[in-house]
């Protein structure tokens, strides 16, 4: 590929960052905040807004309950449901698509940390269930606050899909998924051009507090690397600020296929971060350095490992 080319596939994307959601904040109040961000998006002709992980409630896995059903009121039994329908209506009226993270309770009683992708006409494009579930599943009162995602959510076996939408190829991942290279590569192998990632990342990491001052660095490090190594846009969107006494990272960012951050949040509150994402720009990387068909060598990776043998830790 030589030189630059003009593109018809410039998608104006917004990262709809949220500040804290209080434990007693009702759904309808949160939905109102989300619609407020859609209003900002409409003013700026944004076509797609990415909202954070578990964007409808406080981050409830920080509290232990003996019975899982003790937290069922934080879960959605349908999407849209009665309380989220106004968000779907508002988005469709404005011609804006969105991704939304929420706690999903299926008809057969399974619980997932899910994100739904909705097109500009209100149709549901796809649904992603978080693959890498961090934290722990039993009460650990020694922590200043808990991270009981492994108690409340199943690990998804569905993997990382990519959907034709927004005139491009769009994928999703959720919070801890963004730290794993396989997340991006699985979608990269399907040609992904835009990955939407919501997160709730406490600054304090109880198992190893030496990582606390590096939270912002690690957040951008993994998303920038994932974008560059797969020639894709990445939108990382936080629920940040201090929620129920727990400080969480903000720093929502829109990252180009070059790995460069092109727009970033400046607050820890509700904020819309906007960038024009030229989906054709992905080709600069997908057709050159990261031309998978030409240069990637999965057969050699396996062979070399076999020859050397596995070194026991
Ligand atoms: N919600 C998350 O998945 N949070 C994790 C924390 C617990 C490390 C994260 O990777 O940001």
Bound molecules: 3-methyl-2-ureido-butyric acid
CATH homologous group name: Carbon-nitrogen hydrolase
What is the level-2 CATH architecture name? 4-Layer Sandwich
How are helices and strands ordered from N to C? EHEHEEEHEEHEHEEEEEEHHH
User: Major sheet: order of its strands?
Assistant: 5-4-3-2-1-14
What is the overall pLDDT average? 96
How many helices in DSSP terms? 8
What would you say this structure looks like, in words?
- The chain has 313 residues and is an alpha/beta fold.
- It has a single domain (7-307), classed as 4-Layer Sandwich (Nitrilase/N-carbamoyl-D-aminoacid amidohydrolase), CATH 3.60.110.
- It has helices spanning 27-43, 85-94, 149-152, 181-188, 215-230, 283-286, 292-295, 298-308, and strands at residues 10-17, 48-50, 97-105, 111-118, 124-129, 162-165, 168-174, 194-199, 233-238, 241-243, 246-248, 253-255, 261-264, 271-278.
- Helix 1 (27-43) packs parallel to helix 2 (85-94) and helix 4 (181-188) packs parallel to helix 5.
- 43% of the residues are buried.
- The mean pLDDT is 96.
- 3-methyl-2-ureido-butyric acid binds at residues 53, 134-135, 147, 175-176, 179, 199-201, 205.
């Amino acid at each position: 590929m030589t030189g630059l080319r003009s593109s018809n596939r410039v998608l104006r994307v917004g990262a709809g960052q949220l500040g804290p959601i209080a434990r007693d904040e009702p759904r309808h109040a949160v939905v109102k905040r989300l619609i407020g961000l859609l209003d900002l998006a409409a003013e700026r002709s944004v076509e797609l807004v990415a909202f954070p992980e578990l964007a409808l409630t406080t981050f409830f896995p920080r509290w232990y309950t003996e019975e899982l059903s003790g937290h069922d009121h934080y879960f959605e039994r349908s999407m849209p449901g009665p309380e989220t329908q106004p968000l779907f209506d508002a988005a469709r009226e404005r011609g804006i698509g969105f991704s939304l993270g929420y706690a999903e309770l299926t008809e057969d009683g399974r619980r997932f940390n899910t994100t739904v992708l909705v097109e500009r006409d209100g149709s549901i494009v796809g649904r992603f269930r978080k693959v890498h579930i961090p934290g722990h599943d039993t009460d650990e009162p020694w922590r200043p606050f808990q991270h009981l995602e492994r108690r409340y959510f199943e690990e998804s076996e569905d993997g990382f899909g990519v959907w034709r939408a927004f005139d491009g190829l769009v994928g999703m991942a959720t919070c801890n998924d963004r730290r794993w290279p396989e997340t991006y590569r699985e979608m990269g192998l399907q040609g992904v051009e835009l990955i939407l990632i919501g997160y709730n990342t406490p600054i304090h990491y109880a198992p190893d507090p030496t990582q606390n001052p590096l939270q912002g660095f690690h957040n951008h490090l993994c998303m920038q690397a994932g974008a560059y190594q797969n020639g894709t846009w990445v939108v990382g969107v936080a629920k940040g600020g201090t929620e129920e006494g727990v400080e969480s990272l903000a720093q929502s960012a829109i990252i180009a296929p070059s790995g460069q951050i092109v727009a970033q949040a400046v607050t820890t509150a509700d904020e819309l971060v906007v960038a024009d994402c030229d989906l054709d720009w992905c080709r600069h990387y997908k057709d050159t350095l990261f031309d998978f068909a030409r240069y990637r060598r999965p057969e050699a990776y396996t062979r070399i490992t076999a020859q050397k043998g596995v070194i026991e830790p």
